[in-house]
Amino acid sequence: MSYRVKEIVYTLQGEGANSGRAVVLCRFEGCNLNCSFCDTDYQGIDGPGGGEFASADELAKAVSRLWKGDLSHQRVLCTGGEPLLQLDEQLAAAFHMNGFEILLETNGTIKLPEGIDWVCVSPKEGREPVVKKGNELKLAFPQRNVDPAGYLSLDFEHFYLQPISGVDLSSNTRQAVEYCLTNPSWALSLQIHKYSGLP
To answer: Is 95 exposed, middle or buried (0-12, 13-18, 19+ CB in 10 A)?
Structure first.
C-alpha cells in the first residue's frame, strides 16, 4: 500500500493534552467528512515534506529524518484530514521500528488499527464515533446540535473543548470558557500553534 501525505514537519503539538511537546507532524491527505468549520488544508500532497510514499518503511524513514530531539522521546503526530483512511498496522509497526511513539488525531468514525500509543478523538456533528475509548476527546465548540455532556459517558482520560477558529473565534472562546467553568469535567484547549506562528 502507498501513502499519500500532505505534509511532514517538525514542530510542537499545538493543542490538547500534548500541547507544546515536540512532534513530527505527519498530515495525511483526504478526509471522510466535510465539516463546514474545518480549518485545515488536507488536499493534495504538495506541502512541506509531502508526497506519495510507496511503503510504510519509506514513510517512517521520511518522518525519522526530520526528528531533531532526544532519540528516547520521538513522537509522530498522525493527523489529517482523517489519518485512519491510510494509517494501518503496517505503518504503525514501521513507526515503532524507527523508535516513534504514535499520537493520533481522528474524528473517531473509523476503527483503530493495532499499535496506536495515544488516541485523540475529535467528534463531529451528526457522526457518532465508533472509537469510544482513548486518551483524550477534543470537541470543536460550539457545534450545532452537539451537547458536550453526551460524550462524558465515553471512556477517555481527558475531555477538552476547543473553540472553533475563524471570524467567530472570540465569541466561541468565551462560550467555551463559560462552559468549562460551569462543567468542570471539561478543560479548555487553545490552538497554540496559531498564536505562536508554528505550522
So the answer is: buried
Give the list of residues 6+ apart from residue 41 with CB closer than 8 angstroms, or none. 6, 47
Task: Report CA dihedral (106, 112, 114, 115) to the nearest 10 degrees.
Answer: 10
Nearest to 143 by CA among 129, 164, 157, 160: 164
User: For residue range 126-174, what is the model confidence (pLDDT) as tens digits?
Assistant: 788 999 999 999 999 999 999 999 999 999 999 999 999 989 999 999 9
Rounded Cα distance between 15 and 137, Å, is 12
- Residue 188 sits at the vertex; the CA angle it makes with 199 and 22, to the nearest 5 degrees, is 35
| Distances in whole angstroms, Cα of residue 33 to Cα of each of 37, 60, 86 | 11, 26, 15
- Residue-level pLDDT at 125: 87
Task: Assess whether the previous peptide bond of 134 is cis (omega < 30° from 0).
Answer: no
Is 103 within 8 Å of 13 (Cβ atoms)?
yes
Is the confidence at residue 29, as pLDDT, over 90? yes
Q: Please give the domain boundaries of the chain with CATH numbers for all domains.
A: 3-196 (3.20.20.70)
CA distance 27 to 21: 17
Sign of CA dihedral 40, 173, 155, 72: positive
Q: Are 151 and 137 in contact (CB under 8 A)?
A: yes
Q: What radius of gyration do the chain's Cα atoms show? A: 16
